[in-house]
Design goal:
alpha/beta, Rossmann fold, 2 domains, 3-stranded parallel sheet, about 20% strand, disordered C terminus
Amino acid sequence: MLSGILYPTSGQVLVGGFIPWERKNAFKQRFSIVMGQKNQLWWDLPASDSFYLNKCIFNIDDQQYIRTIEELSELLEVKDLMNVQVRRLSLGERMKMEILAALIHRPDILFLDEPTIGLDIVSQQKIRNFLRYYNEQKKTTIILTSHYMRDIEELCERAVIISQGQVVYDGMLSKINHLMGDKKVLTLKFTEDISIHQLTPFGKVRECKCREGILELPKEGLRKTMADILSCLPVEDFTVTEIPLEESIALIFKKEGAVL
């Protein structure tokens, strides 16, 4: 809808001062979109041919086009693949080419819909590293939709959570856990078997099996609780982490926490 592909049943929105579904040419010059499950590149042609087509569509100056292609192909590590048929590229390589094609006209706004879907871990990380770098260097606004929490955690400062068509959270990603009560997850390893009854006095027991236990604890008073655990139980090792982001978001959807 923000890109003008869908027409709303009601309401208004402005993107860069434009109403998206009016699809004015000036607006189309301002944004680009990459969908993880849809291709914009010609399947049987080298990616370079699709890039040149985009150059002509957006009327890009020759020198600017050359500089952009050289810069992005080097950053995305695809220089040696420019003349390979798209259908012969791996999924990760194709996604890099899709992103390159989307950035040829240097848009102010980049919409990304599941850009790492189906990619292996290494390819996912390379895509994230590039997007983070590009955002920092070019100041391009990136709007990301993803079911991969790692994408969101590594790339997004601001999060908008929509449930049943309503915005239930709009704010800093880092503050979601605070809204859920500022809790921590304490993972413990013991030198001998521990029962759940031994862990219960210290906090909410998430898991307890043999020599391992996981507790959910409030951030406030964590040090004292840790000291009590270490003095009472045979702890071999421990780690303290944040509540997983997906759990906090699930709580927001269920309206079990205070949502601002």
